Amino acid sequence: MTEQTTRTLRWGVLGATSYIAGHLMPAIAATPGCALTAVASRPHRRAQAEAAARPFGATAHADYAALVADPGIDAVYIALPNTDHVEWTVRALEAGKHVLVEKPMAMDEEGCARVEQAARAASRTVMEAFMYRFHPQQRRAAEILASGEIGELRVVRASFAFAIGTGSGNIRLEPSLGGGATWDVGPYAIDAPMLFFGQAPQEVSARFSSRPGLTVDTSAVATMDFGDGRAAVVDYSIDYGPRAAYELQGTHGTLSVRNAWAMSGEDGHLTVLTADGVREETVPAADHYQEQVAAFARAVRDGGSTAVTLTDSRRAARVGAALAASAASQGRPVTTADSPKTPR
Ligand SMILES: NC(=O)c1ccc[n+]([C@@H]2O[C@H](COP(=O)([O-])OP(=O)(O)OC[C@H]3O[C@@H](n4cnc5c(N)ncnc54)[C@H](OP(=O)(O)O)[C@@H]3O)[C@@H](O)[C@H]2O)c1
């Protein structure tokens, strides 16, 4: 048994805003076998890091580099602006830490390749934080699909949208920080079809629109062609909403998940529609952030594979970049197929 299989996984968190303090930090602190040990903000926000660390008895470091260098930290959670994900993930891996990084891991496949190389060289675990995959309703949806009740999967319809204001300071509206709907809500909506079809699409096509006065994309409609007549229709937005639903259209019926990505403590509701009628299922509330932290910690301890694989992350980055390329050329189809060498 290695040391890591027995002792508490000590977490450090980069960034100290309300989302992190309200969701991930409590999830880490509440997960058996995990401890929230340190938080870091940029130097001018040290006071915020201290305030976020205090309720958990964690230490506030002077900056991100100091936290990553701390020998008392085993794992780092990264929820920085999208443009910083690859750099800080690689730096943490090179310092010997395991890393849970927010979506998108990278905004191109090359960034994922850099992460993969660093993880392999350091023999450390890295995973992109697609938290919704860890909610029990997700497992239930997969079970229903596998049971054959709705037949063979033909179409996935995924839609994730919420409206945000145009006030200054939101990283989602800032092009230099990787803002825009495609890299914010988009990754979830495009992950669901890839999860259920178990592969990358062969080709995608997208149309983006931008709120007047903004240069980032704020709404998008896209199609994803999985071959053999199988497809996904996806829309996502930071202009309208709220909506966070997907539907699996099979040859014999439809499975709808009412709230896939915006869960905050409520029950999950699944609806199955077939020729036999309508059937509703309720899945009891669960904290998908905590389930995600627990699954990541298990992968670290067991040295096993993560539920969200690096192949998943490469696909997500490739497809996100392809949607942007398609939108930039008025919806031209862009090839996104897995290479024959892509492992599962
Ligand atoms: N899984 C989910 O449910 C979920 C939900 C929301 C966001 N996210 C992801 O988490 C990441 C951060 O999103 P957020 O909503 O938490 O953003 P946010 O509230 O603006 O926080 C951004 C964080 O990045 C740090 N930062 C570093 N450089 C920055 C800069 N130039 N401008 C602003 N902040 C900077 C800030 O940390 P300090 O100021 O403390 O240094 C802050 O903690 C994104 O990748 C997003 O996709 C995931």
From TrEMBL:
Residues 324-344 are annotated as: Disordered. Belongs to the Gfo/Idh/MocA family. Residues 9-129 form the Gfo/Idh/MocA-like oxidoreductase N-terminal domain. SUPFAM superfamilies: Glyceraldehyde-3-phosphate dehydrogenase-like, C-terminal domain (SSF55347), NAD(P)-binding Rossmann-fold domains (SSF51735). The keyword Oxidoreductase applies. Residues 332-344 have a biased composition (Polar residues). Gene3D superfamilies: Dihydrodipicolinate Reductase, domain 2, NAD(P)-binding Rossmann-like Domain. Keywords: Oxidoreductase. It comes from Streptomyces gamaensis. This is Gfo/Idh/MocA family protein. Residues 139-255 form the GFO/IDH/MocA-like oxidoreductase domain. Transmembrane segments: none annotated.
